[in-house]
Amino acid sequence: xxxHLTVPHPGDVLNMLLAAFLVPFFSALxxxxxxxxxxxxxxWVDNPDGGRKMHEHPTPNIGGIAIAISFGVGFLALLLVxxxxxxxxxxxxxLVFVGALVVxxxxxxxxxxxxxxxxxxxxxxxxxxxxxxxGYHIELEPFLFLGxxxxxxxxxxxxxxxxWIVGILNAVNLLDGLDGxxxxxxxxxxxxxxxxxxxxxxxxxxAIALLMVGGLLAFLVFNYTPASIxxxxxxxxxxxxxxxxxxxxxxxxxxxxxLVTLLVPVILLGLPILDTCLCILRRLLAKKxxxxxxxxxxHHRLSRLLPRHRAVIILYGVALWFGLxxxxxxxxxxxxxxxxxxxxxxxxxxGIRLLDEIHRTYRITGARSSDSAVDEIATMSEENNRYEDxxxxxxxxxxxxxxxxxx
Length: 407
Prior knowledge:
The chain is mainly alpha-helical. It has helices at residues 13-42, 63-81, 91-113, 117-133, 150-175, 181-200, 203-223, 232-248, 258-268, 270-285, 298-305, 308-329, 334-361, 371-388, 394-397; strands at 5-6, 45-46, 59-60, 86-87, 362-365, 402-405.
C-alpha cells in the first residue's frame, strides 16, 4: 500500500507477483463453493422475480465474502513468506483496513436484509472519510491556478475525492447486472492497474492489484453464465473500494502532465463511469430519483439484442479498450495523451449512439403472456442450443424481452 508497504529487494519481484496471483486464485477456488454451500444451507439466496432478477433458480448472493477471504489469505501469505514485503501498522494502514471491513459487512447485511439507499450512502460517505483521513485524496498541488495555499486546494480536493469514492462504489454496484460482468470488468481494471504500478516501480501496490486479479479469475469460474453464485453487494462494494484505493494510490509520476495523470483512472474505469452517468442522466430526464432502480443499463440493452454471454464478452472488450487506452496514455507525450482521451470518448459516444439507434429502430417489449411471443422465444432457444451452445432454458428465455420490428 502506498504509504505502508515497501519492497526493498526487487530481485524476487517475479516470484512475489506470481504468488500474489496464485495464492488468492486457489484460495477462491476453495472458498467460493464453500461459501455457496453455506449460503444455500442458510437460505441466503437471491430468488428470481421474473423482472430485474432474470436468473432461473435461487442463487447464493454472498460470493463477495469469498472474494474478500481469498484476498485476505493471499495478503497474509505474502507477508508470511516474503521477508521483503512489510506492513507498518500506522494510522493509514489501520484506517484502510477498517474501511474494507465496513464495506464488506455493510454489503453482507444489504445482501441479507436490504440496507436501503440512504443507509448505503451513509456507509459510502463514512468509507470516503476513512480514506481521506488515511491520507488518500486526489492530488491537485500541480494545478497552480488553484493557488499554493493547502487549505484552498483542500476545498477542491476533498469534494472531488468524496465524489470519486462514492461514485466508483456505486458504479461497480450498478454494473453487477449480468452473470460475470462486474467480476470480469473489475478483473480487467485490476490487471491494468497492476501494469501501471509495475511501470511506476510500485511493486507492493502491483501485488495488491494481482491479489484481486487472482481471486476474481477464480470467482469467474463460478460466476460466469450460468452463474452458480453471485457476488452480491458484499462483493461489488468490496471491489469498488479496492478500485478506489488502488486508483488513489497511483502517484503523480504516472505522467508529467498533471491533467493526464488525473484522467488516467477516469479512462481506466470508463465503462462503469459511463454507465453510471448515463443511468443518472436518464433518470433525471424522466423526472425520477437517481436512485430509482430500472432495467435500462448498457448491459441490459445489449442483452435484449444479443444472448447474454455475448453481451458480457462485448463489454469485456470495451473495458479492455478503456484499460489499454489508460496504460497507453502514461507512455506518450501530453498531446498524444489528449488525442487518446478524445478518440476514446468519441468512440464511446458513437457506441452509445449506435445502441440507442438500435433501440429506436426496434421496439423492446416484455410480452411474456403472448402465445406468439412464447413460440418465437422457444424457437430462439432451440437455435441457441443448437448453434451457440446456450445454457438458457426455454422457461428462462420466456422471461426475456422480445424484439419486434416497429411498424
